[in-house]
Design goal:
alpha+beta; 7 helices; four-stranded mixed sheet; binds iron/sulfur cluster; 3 domains; three-stranded antiparallel sheet
C-alpha cells in the first residue's frame, strides 16, 4: 500500500483489493511486496541493451535497481533531460548499497543520436538491425516473475535484514516460527538457528510476537548464521518441563505470569 502512489490498494477485513479504476499497472507494488503476493509484469520499465531508460513518470526503488544490476544492468540512459531529485536520491542510495555489496556502481549515460545518418542509411539500419533492436528493447532478463523479486536470491553471501531476538523476553512460544514464510527460524535439537539472510522484512514475526521480543534491523552485512542454545528446564513452581533460552530461568512462562496470590492449579 505504501508503494502505490495512486492509492489503488485497499485492505478489507478478509482480502486486499486492487481498485482497477485507480491502478495504472505501473507495477510498483509487484516489486515492493516482500512476500511476492502480487503477480504481474512491470510494463512501465523500458530497457535498451543493458540500460534502463529514464522516465519521469515513475521512480524505481533501491531493491529494483539492485536486482536489475545482478541481471546485467550497468547504466541508466537519459533522453536529454537530467535525472530528477527522486531518481538521484534512489540511485545514490543504490550505489551506496552496491559498494557495500562489492559491486560496481550504476552509471548515468546520455542517449547518443547520430544526426548525420541519412534517410537511406536509416532505412538500411532498420532493415538489418530491426530484429536485433526489438530483442534489445525487451530482453527476457527484464521480465521477472513474482518470485524473482527476492533480493536474497541475487546476493546470497549477504543479508539485508538482521532479525534480532531478545533472549530475556522470548518464551519460545513458536508463533514466529510458524508465521515466518521464509523459514528464517529453524528449531534444532538443542538450539534455535536464525537465518537472517532469508528475511524479506515482511515484519509478520514482529507483529505476532506477544512478548515484543523481535526487531528487524535494515543494514547490509555479510551472511551470519545465528545460533542460540536452548535449555531444557523443570519449573520450580509447577514441576512442568519447559524450554528456555536463558540457562538461569527457574519458572515456566505460565508461572512467571501467574499472580503469586492465586492458588496454584498444579499444587
Ligand atoms: S513469537 Fe516471540 S516469544 Fe514466541 S518464539 Fe517468537 S520471539 Fe519468542
Ligand atoms: S520479517 Fe520475520 S516473518 Fe518476515 S521474513 Fe523476516 S523473520 Fe520471517
Amino acid at each position: 500500500m505504501e508503494s502505490c502512489k495512486r492509492g489503488a490498494l485497499e485492505i478489507n477485513q478478509q482480502s486486499i483489493e486492487i481498485n482497477q479504476s485507480l491502478c495504472t499497472s505501473c507495477g510498483d507494488c509487484v516489486i515492493a511486496c516482500p512476500l511476492s503476493a502480487i503477480e504481474g509484469i512491470v510494463v512501465s520499465r523500458e530497457f535498451e541493451k543493458n540500460t534502463l531508460i529514464y522516465k519521469e513518470d515513475y521512480t524505481p526503488i533501491e531493491k529494483e535497481l539492485l536486482i536489475y544490476k545482478r541481471r546485467g544492468l550497468n547504466a541508466i540512459t537519459l533522453n536529454g533531460a537530467p535525472l530528477n531529485d527522486k531518481w538521484k536520491f534512489v540511485l545514490a542510495e543504490t550505489n551506496r548499497m552496491l559498494s557495500q555489496l562489492d559491486q560496481s556502481p550504476i552509471e548515468v549515460v546520455q542517449r547518443k543520436y547520430d544526426e548525420k545518418v541519412s534517410r537511406r542509411d536509416f532505412f538500411t539500419m532498420m532493415q538489418t538491425g530491426g530484429k536485433k533492436l526489438a530483442k534489445n528493447l525487451t530482453p527476457a532478463s527484464w521480465k521477472l516473475e513474482a518470485n524473482e523479486w527476492n533480493l536474497a536470491n541475487y546476493y546470497p553471501e549477504y543479508q539485508f535484514y538482521t532479525v534480532e531476538l531478545d533472549k530475556d523476553k522470548c518464551t519460545l512460544c513458536k508463533a514466529c516460527f510458524t508465521f515466518c514464510s521464509q523459514n528464517v527460524f529453524q528449531l534444532k535439537d538443542t538450539s534455535l538457528q536464525i537465518e537472517s539472510n532469508n528475511c524479506v522484512n515482511c515484519t509478520d514475526c514482529v507483529d505476532i510476537c506477544l512478548e515484543d521480543a523481535l526487531q528487524i534491523n535494515t543494514e547490509i552485512k555479510g551472511k551470519i548464521d545465528y545460533q542460540e542454545p536452548i535449555h531444557a528446564k523443570k519449573c520450580l513452581d509447577c514441576g512442568q518441563s519447559f524450554h528456555s533460552l536463558q540457562p538461569e530461568t527457574v519458572k515456566c512462562p505460565i508461572c512467571v505470569q501467574r499472580d503469586p496470590e492465586w492458588l496454584s492449579p498444579y499444587q
